[in-house]
Design a protein that fits this description.
Number of strands: 21
Bound molecules: adenosine-5'-diphosphate, magnesium ion
Mean pLDDT: 95
CATH topology of the largest domain: Rossmann fold
Radius of gyration: 25 Å
Shape: globular
Number of helices: 22
CATH superfamily of the largest domain: Thiamin diphosphate (ThDP)-binding fold, Pyr/PP domains
Strand content: 15-25%
Largest sheet: 6 strands, parallel
CATH class of the largest domain: Alpha Beta
Structural class: alpha/beta
Low-confidence stretches: 565-569
Number of domains: 3
Helix content: 25-40%
């Protein structure tokens, strides 16, 4: 009997499915039927308002679950909007599968509706990009894309589905079904490299473990926690490495980050790259003679920017267990009474006091530290924290602790703004299925919120109890107060005289939430903020948005090093 490939997917046997749970996208010609067919197989489909946000959401599912989320897009512009999400996923080393409809096969180069060289375009943003040559081969291509996205260094994959495939008929017996791919194989580091690394660590005077989002992705939390506890080593999480070992662990030296990086003589990199986030591992932010021990699943990563003293190629969880075995034999632990610990603890205390002083300032409008101080007191300890915006993200990272792995999602390796709402939607979908009592808190700068703000409608449509907090300084980096904006407007055309970083003062973003039936709060004082936080956390089934007005000139506390200038890094 002839069948339609997608129509028939619903009754395909479980062993032939690739354990995909979530699909995000925007339907239209020619992919609507694919979304309906996916739902029929039991895949949850979330219809978003922009493909970019849909793609961010799908990639966050990959990071949170270890199985790629799917982003389904229409041809041409739909696919092009998704490229931002693919690039972001690939840069973050997160698995993702993008399925794009494309113009019919017989229309190539004719100028068909939304015709574009999609497979070629996606090559730059993915590990694998292909179009099945026939209906029969679709299962094999899907298995390969899913497998490629999670094997080795995870990343994005693309499958192109020509429009004429969608309603084409074929005989059921000719479909070449492929079984679900095996879980990624777990690789161990060379034994000699493990012994060499253990020896360097045990001879260090000022050691430091750096825990990156690769460690979070590899579910290495238990083994890394044991390594920290057994060897009593100081550790520093990267932004999304936060929570692999809880931030409140006594060995966490995040509050002395610059000092720790600057003076460590031995650094163990657990799933973190020596890229801009870690100042390339080079002076003046690091010692010129720092000994780096690198643990990574990607061989090509080993030796980037700094020549390591030991390279442990393998899965972080497995390699950390190898290191633990080595240390169990020697019973080595780092002494707790060293000058290094003393220096780190002093710096931490000093920095924490400075932040606390800013947090307790009574003046209005509030500053960033005051906002996060109150948020810290009231937010649940086990919530997912999504964060973006320049100062909002940077200051929030230092002020808001993470106690669980994979519970922080932010602008990441690519520094992408606009990811927040898509990530929050993904986290809420995953939480609903796995940990229904956990809240998703999305803390956005006002500029960052603007990139994907219409996803508030998606949040309300799917009744996702996300709490969005906008830390609103009326601008990008810094903003403008209402009176100055008035003056500027009198002076002339805003396009000619307003600074490019200004946004409209006192914008009522909370009304975007109330427009769709969620709860919106506009707050200017610490008391109003506390009340809004309490009310929105109590209403645990309703999406809400708290728009917090802060001083447009509020900034980070004095830093030891200026941000991102190559010569000063
Ligand atoms: P961060 O931004 O936290 O510094 P990066 O994204 O720069 O982290 O680095 C993550 C690293 O983790 C990448 O180099 C990636 O290859 C590596 N990685 C991902 N999964 C694993 C795994 N299972 N085992 C080992 N390394 C991994
Ligand atoms: Mg802002």
């Amino acid at each position: 009997m002839p069948i339609r490939f997608w129509g028939q997917l619903g009754d395909c046997c479980k062993v032939y499915q690739q354990n995909i749970e979530y699909m995000f996208g925007i339907v239209g010609i020619p992919v609507t039927e694919i979304a309906i067919a996916a739902q029929a197989t039991g895949i949850k489909y979330v219809g978003m308002r922009n493909e970019q946000a849909a793609c961010y959401a799908a990639s966050a599912v990959g990071y949170l679950t270890g199985r790629p989320g799917v982003c389904l897009v229409v041809s041409g512009p739909g696919l092009i909007h998704a490229l931002g999400g693919m690039a972001n996923a690939n840069m973050n080393c997160w698995p993702l599968l993008v399925i794009g409809g494309s113009s019919d096969r017989n229309q190539d180069t004719m100028g068909a509706f939304q015709e574009f060289p999609q497979v070629e375009a996606c090559r730059l943003y993915s590990k694998f990009s292909a179009r099945p040559s026939s209906l029969e081969t679709i299962p094999a291509i899907i298995e390969k894309a899913v497998r490629t996205s999670i094997y080795g260094r995870p990343g994005a994959c693309y499958i192109d589905i020509p429009g004429d495939f969608v309603n084409l008929q074929m005989s059921k017996s000719s479909v070449k079904y492929v079984e679900c791919c095996l879980p990624p194989p777990v690789s161990l580091a060379e034994r000699s490299a493990v012994s060499a690394a253990a020896s360097v660590i045990s001879h260090s005077r000022q050691p430091l473990l750096i825990i990156g989002k690769g460690a979070a992705y590899s579910h290495a939390e238990d083994s890394i926690r044991r390594l920290v506890d057994q060897c009593e080593l100081p550790f520093l999480p990267t932004p999304m490495g936060k929570g692999v070992v809880p931030d409140n662990h006594p060995n966490c030296v995040a509050a002395a980050r610059s000092r720790a990086l600057l003076h460590a003589d031995v650094i163990v990199l657990l799933g973190a790259r020596l890229n801009w986030i870690l100042h390339f591992g080079l002076p003046p932010r690091f010692r010129p003679d720092v000994k780096v021990i690198q643990v990574d699943i990607c061989a090509e990563e080993l030796g980037n920017n700094v020549r390591p003293v030991a390279t442990l190629l393998g899965d972080i969880n497995a390699v950390t267990q190898q290191l633990l075995e080595e240390f169990s034999r020697s019973l080595w632990k780092y002494p707790s009474d060293t000058e290094w610990w003393k220096r780190l603890r002093e710096t931490m205390k000093n920095n924490e006091e400075k932040a606390q002083a800013l947090a307790l300032q009574k003046s209005l409008p509030m500053n960033y530290y005051t906002v996060f101080h109150h948020a810290k007191k009231l937010l649940p300890k086990d919530c997912f924290l999504v964060s973006e915006g320049a100062n909002t993200m940077d200051i929030g990272r230092t002020m808001l602790p993470n106690n669980y792995p994979r519970h922080r999602l932010d602008a990441g390796t690519f520094g992408t703004m606009g990811v927040g709402l898509g990530f929050a939607i993904a986290a809420a979908m995953v939480a609903k299925d796995r940990t229904p009592n956990k809240r998703v808190i999305c803390i956005e700068g006002d500029s960052a919120f603007g990139f994907s703000g219409m996803e508030v409608e998606t949040i309300c449509r799917y009744k996702l109890p996300i709490l969005i907090i906008i830390v609103n300084n009326n601008g990008i980096y810094n903003g403008v107060d209402a009176d100055s904006w008035e003056e500027i407007s009198k002076f002339g055309e805003p396009s000619m005289c307003a600074l490019p970083n200004f946004l409209l003062p006192n914008s009522h973003y909370e009304q975007v939430m109330s427009a769709f039936g969620g709860k919106g709060y506009f707050v200017k004082t610490p008391e109003e903020l506390q009340n809004a936080l309490k009310a929105s956390l109590e209403e645990n089934q309703v999406p809400s948005l708290i728009n917090v007005m802060i001083d447009p000139l509020s900034a980070r506390k004095q830093q030891d090093f200026p941000w991102l200038t190559r010569s000063n890094m």
